[in-house]
Design brief:
393 residues, 24% strand, elongated, binds flavin-adenine dinucleotide
Amino acid sequence: MTEADVVVIGAGASGLMCALEAGKRGRKVMVLDHANKAGKKILMSGGGRCNFTNYTIEPENYFSHNPHFCKSALSRYSQWDFLSLIAKHQIPYHERDHGQLFCNDSARDILDMLLAECENAGVVIRLNTHIDAVEQATDQRFHIKTATDCITAQSLVVATGGLSIPKMGATPLGYQIAQQFGIKVWPTRAGLVPFTLQPEDKERLSVLSGIAVPCVVSNDRQSFNENVLFTHRGLSGPAVLQISSYWQPGETVMINWLPKWDAAAELKLKRQQKLKNKVKTILEEHLPKRLLCSLLPEEWLKCSLQDLSDRQIQKMAEQLHHWLIKPGGTEGYRTAEVTCGGVDCDALSSKTMVSKQVPGLYFIGEVVDVTGWLGGYNFQWAWSSGWCAGQYV
Ligand SMILES: Cc1cc2nc3c(=O)[nH]c(=O)nc-3n(C[C@H](O)[C@H](O)[C@H](O)COP(=O)(O)OP(=O)(O)OC[C@H]3O[C@@H](n4cnc5c(N)ncnc54)[C@H](O)[C@@H]3O)c2cc1C
């Protein structure tokens, strides 16, 4: 039997942050992970450069069955706190669109920083450790049974992440532990994930593979102004990944291909100015030729602007500004960046992340029903929730 004050299951973003904070408080912390390396998702994130936070972090950048839950942690450990840690370790970084912050060199800088902080704080990290069972004894200590021994701890932190990228070691263990202790888990689904298309759309749109267009993608609940990318499997790009988190199977998604150009008004104006161009020539200044040919019938594109009626212009504009597509599905956990749903926030304290009904049991990071947008929001949630738990475990 090995004794610790705190056992953290999961040596990912939130688990390492929690561990180093608890270690700094003098707690004897042990982190267990079944993977052969810590922080694998950190290493693969942001195309290898880790989009570790964002200059603008608001509760509105997250969704959850309890949208208020994330507020406390995000304000108590903010992006500025994480940036102080980055500064302490002199990690060079840069800003990209929408305030997203990336490492200049490599995501490894972030992982090395967390591991160095853990080492300084005396945290023990045990990899290749398979968890067989978790129990709480009558003295409220947790018994974590691994393939080789049993570890007991006063606090147990579940930081096992979501289900995305099973190849990287994602498992449902965190949800199972919650359910074992009677804690509600909201159904999970893949988020920040490309859409697949219905067979007929796939065939029709396959010629567009490789085209990326800035546009606005929306449904009844959300709207994102970023790029859409056609791939050989379906639709991807930041705008599609973002809306996918808000998408329910069977729903239609709307794309405005020309958010900055009022097609009806502009075409009417040009017609009034007696411009004799073909519709195609005018629209090609704003959208790739291949895309136009898929969006509008050939006879419309071939038409001279002067031959168009108001009604035809209106129909054309409708198609360009309110293009509807019903995705066949998503690529699922295989390629998803996050998992939506998870451990019910109402079962946890938003200040400490401890279970309201099981003393000493904490849930942090992606396993909790808090999902961020694309842009560094999910890591910030991992840092913030991990930090908060680290102050109390
Ligand atoms: C390809 C990709 C790119 C991403 N890029 C970004 C980005 O640039 N910016 C951003 O903000 N977010 C990004 N994310 C999301 C981000 O990686 C996660 O939200 C974040 O890592 C969640 O942290 P976590 O600590 O909750 O879980 P994780 O970091 O996933 O850590 C969970 C840990 O638990 C371990 N574990 C799981 N099951 C078990 C088990 N049964 N026994 C023992 N250990 C277990 C895993 O091995 C893992 O080490 C990306 C995700 C992916 C998949």
